[in-house]
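If you are new to this repository, start here. Below is one unmodified record pulled from the training split, so you can see the exact layout before writing a loader.
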Amino acid sequence: MRPVYFLLLGVHIGVALGLWPLPRSLRTGTSTIRLAPDFHIDIDVARPPADLEQAVSRTKAFLKNDKLGRLVVGRGAEDSEALQHAELLESLRLSLTHGAPVRSITDEARLAIGTRREEYELHIPVDGTAATLVANSTLGLLRGLTTFEQLWYEWSDHIYTVEAPISITDSPGYPFRGFMLDTARNFFPVSDIKRTLDAMSWVKMSQFHWHVVDSQSFPLEVPGFTDLASKGAYSSSMVYSPSDVQDIVSYAGARGIDVMIEIDTPGHTAIISAAHPEHVACAQASPWSTFANEPPAGQLRLASATTTNFTANLLAAVARMSPSTLLSTGGDELNIECYAQDPETQADLKATNRTLEQALDVFTRTTHAAIRAEGKTPAVWEEMVLEHNVTLGNDTIVMVWISSANAAAVAAKNFRIVHGPSDFFYLDCGAGEWIGDDVANSWCDPFKTWQKSYTFDPLANISAFQAHLVLGGEQLLWTEQSGPENLDSIVWPRAASSAEVFWSGPGGNLSAALPRLHDVAFRMRQRGVKAIQLQPMWCALHPGQCNIDS
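And here is the target side for that same chain:
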């Protein structure tokens, strides 16, 4: 995937410019126009899909209810006179390019990664004639509607912009623009996940990576394997039923987001021992630090044919729960000492005359074959490529997490990459160590600011020949110290920083980005997402004056 760098042509840049991510090409003027009281959005698409009509309804509701004043001193009072003489915009017309297929937003969002069409063109005239939004797909129309919503502010019951005419041609640099949520260490109700999906859609994120289970809990009710949740969830009220999963993936799809479920194997699986102790080595072993990266200890007996088949069948059942073409099988932080001290594993290795690495290869080939049979492409953590000698399909997606420096080594092996390095994108870092009797900082401190993630270069140390392997990236929230209580504030608006990096391309100016990111946070709060403040409000109303050199 070739990166796209934004181009601002003939642009008047003012503090009212609240677009995020920044479009590829943008022209604005300096005239004020306002929405007519009977402003309407026309869908010039034959038999428009229901989710496109719903997207239009959401846009109209946001235009009416955002009631966001411009982030300037007076919050727009200075615009009063111009508003008295402003032209009225009566309508926005949506259409698809000639010959474009008419599919639902949901279906477009679930296409194989790299084949989704998200480009659009938006034109808003200054003379009050109809605005137009044209795209090659309903997904592109959704992205354009998201941009349209960000252009408008409210003062004294007027909904207006001071930057007409506006002309935008836009498309993403990378198809994978994601956020990962861990729902195993602490549980998040469906409503919290939906609110997060809403916020993701407002900054044009495309992929929800759902790390749904881990060693601490198994909150996913899997058909045919219901005992894993009944015995492995924190409580019966902290379970995602198949209908909950369908609800979440449908909600995401209508907002242009694909859902990649992750079932981490063979490590991070201690909780499976609650239902099936026969499949788990060193379950609850002590001291846990000898047998795992964090408590509780326990991982699947990968050398066992019975356990391998059990895992393959489990992953296949999970694959059938989600319409995405992607499924992550994890593969990180495998603890060798756990297997060295497990009599059953050692007996299986001896009986088959295999090394642990050879057994891991068989385990991986078997489990990946099972999900491929269900139409899924596997995703794995970087250790499966860089630390182990296992057979992976050439289309396997590798998620780089330990260090941004490791992406080059993955690219050298010719695997597709999703960036999620802890040194840039881990949202949980900076809260100190959570281990009960340890007063040290956590392993990934310090706190990863939005400025840090915004400076990420997806192609650092990646050759031009390898650039096509980079699919994009994601910011991640591991939830040892997070729950519904702080979900919004720890994620937003920081996670929006990577959304722009992977849509607009790297190299954005921090000082120019900050006023727009303030705008994102203020608008999110208007919509019910409790995004954290980035600075004192004085700074938000005086762009640039809180810079170190101002």
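Two things worth knowing about this chain: The longest strand covers residues 25-44. Confidence is low (pLDDT under 50) at residues 1-16.
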